[in-house]
């Protein structure tokens, strides 16, 4: 991989060096509709409480709710739209500690917050830095519905010699 300098990538506003431990980003909000919840469930998680409002009333959730995987996908959409698209992101080696803390219902307004926990240069890739973050998603009542941690790889503005 050839190093890309800031001059060669004017669309990149955030490089590894710009991500500091303790930094918090609010990454916007969105509201899933009943139609979106059902469509996602039909394709990826066809359990009754994600597909049918009547069946969902008898579930532990008490009503139709989004799949946890749908909630993760919504968080990813906010992450990409409001952060990764303007960063020097190179992808991720994975997520961990995914927890669905409360159900997400149609019409809930979900907001995403990212906190940087750790940054370090990669030892074998001098042009890449690793960042560990926490993603927290909250509903309109301030209740946390999702928690996950993970790592992202970002191109360095100035690769180490």
Compact overview of the structure:
This protein is of the alpha+beta class and 161 residues long. It has helices at residues 34-44, 48-51, 53-57, 68-82; strands spanning 24-30, 94-100, 110-121, 128-138, 144-155. The protein has one domain: Thiol Ester Dehydrase, Chain A, CATH 3.10.129.
Summarize the structure in words.
With 161 residues, the protein is α+β, with helices and mostly antiparallel strands. The chain has one domain: Thiol Ester Dehydrase, Chain A. The chain is 22% helix and 30% strand. It has a five-stranded antiparallel β-sheet, covered by helices on one side. Strand 3 and strand 4 form a beta hairpin. It starts with 23 loop residues before the first strand and ends in a 6-residue tail after the last strand. 24% of the residues are buried. The mean pLDDT is 94.
Number of contiguous helices: 4
Strand content: 25-35%
Low-confidence stretches: none
Strand order of the largest sheet: 1-3-4-5-2
Order of helices and strands: EHHHHEEEE
N- to C-terminal distance: 15 Å
Please, how many domains?
Answer: 1
**What is the approximate shape?**
elongated
What's the architecture, going by CATH? Roll
What's the CATH H-level superfamily name?
Hotdog Thioesterase
Under the CATH scheme, which class?
A: Alpha Beta
CATH topology: Thiol Ester Dehydrase, Chain A
| Fraction in helix | 10-25%
Oligomer: single chain
SS-derived structural category: alpha+beta
Mean pLDDT across all residues, rounded? 94
The biggest sheet amounts to: 5 strands, antiparallel
Number of strands: 5
